[in-house]
Amino acid sequence: MLIGELADRAGTSPRTLRYYEEHGLIRPRRDANGYRQYDDAELRVVHEIRTLLADGFGVDDIKPFVACLRAGNSAGHVCPESAVVLRRRLAEVDDLLDRLTGVRERLQDQLKEIRCQMTP
């Protein structure tokens, strides 16, 4: 399929697909006329990329997941290299949650202080 069809089927734009290609995440074949041709398997890879990006993974973090899919695995997260990235991302999310919990507690304390000052 051509880049426009892949973009339509994946719910993205040709520009985004070219960005993925620049970073080695997707691999088109080139026709004699230079047009990019994509196999159906690339649609699955693009969906994986978009899901991981939406979950906050960086482009470099996504590469092991794509390699895992290309190796014929049923999912991009089942390979050891992907598990390393998953563990690191989980630790980052846990850290963010801890920091957000601290912010939440400070805001609640400030609101309590305001209520105490307003009640006679």
UniProtKB/TrEMBL annotation:
Pfam families listed in its UniProt record: MerR_1 (PF13411)
UniProt keyword annotation of Coiled coil present: yes
Gene Ontology molecular-function annotations: DNA binding; DNA-binding transcription factor activity
Residue ranges occupied by any HTH merR-type domain in the UniProt entry: 1-68
Residue runs in coiled coils: 90-117
Keyword annotations: Coiled coil, DNA-binding, Transcription, Transcription regulation
Highest taxon of source: Bacteria
Annotated SUPFAM superfamilies: Putative DNA-binding domain (SSF46955)
InterPro entries tied to this protein: DNA-bd_dom_put_sf, MerR-type_HTH_dom, MerR_fam
Record protein name field: DNA-binding transcriptional MerR regulator
Taxonomic lineage from the root: Bacteria, Bacillati, Actinomycetota, Actinomycetes, Micromonosporales
